[in-house]
Amino acid sequence: MRHLTLLLTLLFLLPGLAFGAPDAFDDGVAAFRRGDYAEASELWTELLGDPLSDADRARVLYNLGNAAWRSDAGGEALGWYGAALRCAPRHEEARANAAFVREELGLAPLETGDLRGAFRRLAESRTRSEAAWTVLAAALILLIALLGEALRGGPLWRGFALAAAAALLIVLVPWIQAERTSDRDLWMAVADPRSSLRSEPRGNLPAIDALDAGDVAERIDELPGWVRLETRGGLRGWVPEDEVFRLRR
Amino acid sequence: MLSRLISTRFTLATLLVLALCAAFASPGRSRPAAPRAPQAGEVRVTAALSSGVLKLGDRTSIVVVIESEGQIPEANPLGDLPEVDGLKLGPPSGPSRTRYEQRFGRRSTITVTDQWIIPVRPLRAGEFEIPPFRIRAGGKTYESRSLVLKAVEDMTGQELGLLEVSASSSTVVEGLPFSIEVRFGWDEGLRDVNFADLSLGFWNGLPGVIELDREFPAPGAKRIEGGVTINGGEGVVVEEMPAVELRGRRFRQLRLVRSFVPTRAGRIDFSETFLNFGRAEEGGSFFNRRLEKVKDYYVRAPRFYVEVEPLPEEGQPYDFTGAVGSIAAKASVDARDVDVGDSIKLTVEWSGSGNLEFFDAPDPARMEAFEGFRVYGRTEEKSFERRTTVYDLAPMSDEVGEIPPVPLRVYDSERGEYITIATEAIPIRVRPLATAVELDAEGDDDEGLARDLHDIDTRALGSGGTGRRAPGPRAVTAVVFGVPILWVLLRTWARRRGDPSAPLERRRRGARRKLARALGQAGTPEEELRALHAFLAERTREPDHAWVGRDLEQAERRNGTSGSAPGDLGELRTLLERLEAAVWTGRGERVGRDEVLAVADRLMGAGL
User: Fold this and answer.
1) Using an 8 Å Cβ cutoff, are B184 and B254 in contact?
2) Do residues B344 and B394 lie in contact, with contact meaning Cβ atoms separated by under 8 Å?
3) CA B389 to CA B391: how far, in whole Å?
4) CB-based contact A127:A87 (threshold 8 Å)
5) Do B473 and A62 touch (CB under 8 A)?
6) Of the ranges A5-9, A133-137, B280-284, B385-389, which one carries the lowest mean pLDDT score?
7) I need a labelling partner for A86 at 20 to 30 A (CA). Which of A31, B305, B362, B578 fits?
8) Cβ-based contacts of B507 with chain A (< 8 Å)
9) Which residue among B458, B469, B479 places its CB closest to the CB of A29?
10) b/e map of A46-84 (b: 16 or more CB within 10 Å)?
11) Residues in chain B, pLDDT under 70
12) Parallel, antiparallel or unpaired: strands B429-431 and B337-339
């Protein structure tokens, strides 16, 4: 039993001991407090290579966004906040800072306050893990309700089962959304004010479309210095890598 | 001879019958003569004055009748009314339409008659010829005859009546209110005057002006209600003035005042005004009582004009908001000793003669003098003689020492120039807040409070909770689809033994609980036995009395008793025998709740 306890303790402490993540994080905080935003960014960016939980990763990404904004890199800050929100969709401070940066950069607000936007935000309010666990919990409740309905019958159990089925359908929406977007390699345009899409990865070719700063597109190919993206409108084109920001970190 | 007599009688009878037949066959002849209808396709136009001679100030009307057969006149057959110098015609009212159908044998004719009434009022004395009215129908033009109207001055009325209409000023500037005063009356010697009607052309219809809602008569004045009407209809309240001596006569004097604000430059025409006064008595039929003039007089007042001049562009301040007149301003506050940020209600009152209801009050939020204040809003009350605006201000720092004057740019019509009317500055004391930063002044967002990023997250990593690994999409999909499949299978299996929600099944499931409750309340062996019988019946889905006196072995042989073990059955048999013996001999004792429940549980465990 003692061996088992020791083994479990080691398993919990191993990530921290092995990678020194808390130290790097705290060093980054100290550098940020000193006003050395470049060092803070460097420390925190290295930290992203470590295995982190979604919550911790979101906090590091969020701090990187603040460091970028203080370094006068507004577009990059927007990208970091976007990446943080992908890890923790309910990170209100990241959302607020992103809105602030967009406003400061003169970009249109992402949340327009209409019904469609509210549904979208609701659908994207859960991480993939949370959405999956929520679906399983709802399925368990539905199972109990259906067992009752099968073995006991009666209107009460039927009503319970219907309510549980409706709840399951509702929680399926964020899960489907999370699964749909989980495999996508999304990039955010951070060039000020816009990035030009070209048909080939050559700068001397004419632009075929543009991505406004803050627009998100899916990566479908990559070459040194260039990323091929597919916009929400379905148009594909090449963008210089330094004008876009990878949201999966 | 006889034959001739018979022949004569026959002839007479025949003639009589024929005459009767003819009489019946031509009913039109037996009716009263109808008015002569116009021929087919013809239109007849007639026009007539209801009175050919009238006093100046009185009104009459022209009745135009358009009769047509088969022709429907146009929607506006009268078109533009003829212009007659000295007469005011219209607007016409109507038409009043009647249809008249006549039958002559198999032929029927329909005559449509439209009647139009055109009011006529003479503007001066004289004889006037009203030209014919021309009607167009079916591509043709029809006309009535011309009419002659004579209007005579009512010399007696001019002598016995008083009527003066005047403006407060013959020249005003745009936006400056002016008043029209109507003074009227009659000789005090006329004791029986009981009505007065004023014909006022400007009543409810003067272009280029807005009528002010001013209280009239003023409080304290002697009011006369009833007896005075305007334009023959609307009753009006007037003010009784002291009697006045004119032309050697003493007149009772009444007054009516209306105020207007001119909205555009130009000439405002006040046409001739008439006063009709006299005695009227109630008359008419029983169902249609109305006042009929017994004796009346007319007085006329000449037309006049008010010239409205535009506001001069020269010297007009950029913040001029339309105030015109002689206006005075004063200000007051509800608190003079406040903390930073406290609300102060600044009340500014403008009064005097001017368009107090129509200018925009100054906005302190746009004034440099009010930079030390935040203006939260204002409320206003407007009346003819007073304009009160309450500003809600808050001083932003303790350096503010007074509420600055509130200026209003006014065009002073008497001086003919733009001037500034300002309130007095009001000294105040503003105390600083003990533990607070100063509030931000109006529009000064760059200093003091400003928006900024939320700070970085400094909590140690891992304090946000450990991340759980997400179940894979296949697992989630399998669960989501597996649950309903499991339900279908389980339900099918469960329904093979019947519907679990059927009453007998629900009764069976509740049998153990019911037995425990019944045994807890049982006081005699008989009640225990009854409870046990009920339990057994419910478990075997039988009526309550099915287990009374039942042979257990025979019952087991018949339906197997759900496979109960012999030991359990023997125990049940023994229990039932004990209870029955106790009941029928009357000497036995209760078995007890626990023992009966123990047997019941074993039976249920064995499949009962």
Assistant:
1) yes
2) yes
3) 6
4) yes
5) no
6) A5-9
7) A31
8) none
9) B458
10) ebeebebbbbbbbbbbbbbbbbbbbeebbbbbbbbbbbb
11) 1-41, 70-75, 138, 434-449, 463-468, 555-568
12) parallel
Distance of CA B456 to the CA centre of its chain: 57
Contact yes or no for B149/B329 (Cβ under 8 A): no
Which residues in chain B are closer than 8 Å to A154, comparing Cβ atoms?
A: 501, 506
pLDDT confidence of residue B72: 61
Identify the pLDDT of residue A17.
44
- In our burial notation (b when 16+ CB lie closer than 10 A, e otherwise), range B354-389 reads bbbbbbebbebbebeebbbbbbeebeeeeebeebbb
Closest partner CB to A22 (pick from B457, B460, B472): B460
Q: Could you tell me if A32 lies within 8 Å of chain B, comparing CB atoms?
A: yes
Here the tokens at position B371 are 């930079």
d(CA A90, CA A121): 10
The Cα–Cα gap between A193 and A105 comes to 9
A139–B490 CB contact, under 8 Å: no
* CB under 8 A, 24+ apart: contacts of B93-97: B93/B117, B93/B118, B93/B119, B95/B66
pLDDT of res. B70: 64
B209 membership: H or E segment, kind and range? strand B209-211
What ipTM was estimated for this complex? 0.74
Q: Which pair of structure tokens corresponds to residue B558?
A: 């018949």
Q: Are B311 and B411 in contact (CB under 8 A)?
A: yes
Task: Kindly list the residues from chain A whose CB atom is less than 8 angstroms away from the CB atom of residue B483.
Answer: 139, 142-143, 146
Which tokens belong to B132?
């014919």
Average pLDDT of chain B, as a whole number: 80
Chain A nearest C-alpha distance from B523 (Å): 34
Among A16, A36, A20, residue whose Cα is nearest residue A28: A36
